[in-house]
Amino acid sequence: MTGLLLFAGDASGRSGAVGPLFDLGLADWRDVAALGRVAADTREALRNARQRRDIVGFLGEVVGAALEPRRGVDRIEPAELSSEAQRLLEAWKELDAMLEGQGLDLQLGMAAFARDLVSYGRDVAPMSYRKLLGEEREAALEALRLQVRMRADRATALAARMRDFATRAGAFAALFAGFERDPAARIALREAPELCLAYDDDGQVRLEPVKGGAARQFWRLRHDPATDAHRLQSAADPALYLHIAADDKLWTLANTSTPFGFPLVSEGPRPCVGPLDEAPARSDLFLIPPRQGANIENVAFPSHALDVGADGGVQAGAVLKLWEKTGLPSQQWAFSPPPRSRREPGLYDLIAAAAQLAQTVAGVRGLRGDWNAVLDDLEAGPGAAPADLDAVLAAWRRMADQAEAALGEFEAETRAFDAACP
């Protein structure tokens, strides 16, 4: 059935549309404006940091002290970012450039679209719909066609801008979805990459063939800013960490040197995996490559490194030990993927909110079709009885109320956007 009841309800009939009209999530438009504000905030922070020439330096200013250059390093090259992080940054810059160039057009167009719904639901429909059931039907129908066509044309222009916005926002959000802040990594010997560290049910750490991909082969690196070291957390069980076992005698001996500066004992306390509740202080903090060469060194044992070659050589099943530094291949480790630089998590944190908002924007569908559905139903002619009119007008009023509420939220965000773009 076509007719007046379709003008603000379920579209069907000649329009060919399906589902509620103008089902655009109008209240979510504030997220579009918020994305513009996030872009403006970031852009302003970058501009304020242009005494630094490279983009990594800009990001350091944006995200604060956590991204300050390492001590003794005057300049950090952009290459410190991984290729994935560089692609993510480029996608963000494209979206940001679009917002800077067309953000105002989007703001004005979206506000106009909401106002069109408000004026139609509160003014045009109550004034004209009753005339469709009377002797002034043809004149009222022509006036309504004009009102709807004007709104459809404005929605068409907005839809074109929104498609560009949604395409860029969607590309950015999709790329961001594949960028992990702290990806789980395998820890393998550099000269035997087919063997990596894993642990058994007793918490003993051994070399295990990479082939098979057991979950216990993967570790997450948790940075400790106070020591610039990392905790190695099991990706399979986040409650478990690699640490040096408690052994008072060996802890003392391994940190005692001979008169010639060599460790008093070659082997330190046993590395193990378990909860940290009763682990000795600093036993879970490790300096990892590339900062300390290829050694993995516990901060409490500066003369020792993790080693698997003391007994029986490097082979599957070899037990991890804490051994005096030798520089041999049994102490040379590599992470796959390589550890994130300190700046890469900062990049992730900087644009995480923008990625979430971009996903919302990318989901906005076309805007023009619903006004065309109303126009099609007008062309089909009213099929409702006078008794139906009150329900039709009430539906339009509800839609106008929703659009006005969305407009208020949207304009609050755009004011914040404007304030950030002096």
Question: What does it look like?
Answer:
By secondary structure, the chain is of the alpha+beta class. The chain has helices at residues 29-48, 55-63, 83-132, 137-177, 248-254, 343-362, 368-380, 389-420, and strands at 186-189, 192-199, 205-209, 219-224, 229-234, 241-244, 271-274, 286-287, 297-298, 304-307, 321-324, 333-336. The protein contains 8 helices and 12 strands. Strand 4 (219-224) and strand 5 form a beta hairpin. Helix 1 crosses helix 2 (55-63).
Please describe the topology of this protein.
Blueprint (H helix, E strand, L loop, with lengths): L28 H20 L6 H9 L19 H50 L4 H41 L8 E4 L2 E8 L5 E5 L9 E6 L4 E6 L6 E4 L3 H7 L16 E4 L11 E2 L9 E2 L5 E4 L13 E4 L8 E4 L6 H20 L5 H13 L8 H32 L2
Strand content: 5-15%
Structural class: alpha+beta
Largest sheet: spatial strand order: 3-2-1-12
Net shape: rod-shaped
How many strands?
A: 12
Number of helices: 8
What string, H for helix and E for strand, traces the elements in order? HHHHEEEEEEHEEEEEEHHH
**Kindly state the mean pLDDT as a whole number?**
75
Radius of gyration: 32 Å
Unreliable stretches (pLDDT < 50, length at least 5) are 1-6, 8-19, 49-78
What labels would you give this structure?
single chain; 422 residues; 4-stranded antiparallel β-sheet; 8 helices
Structure summary:
This protein has 422 residues and is of the alpha+beta class.
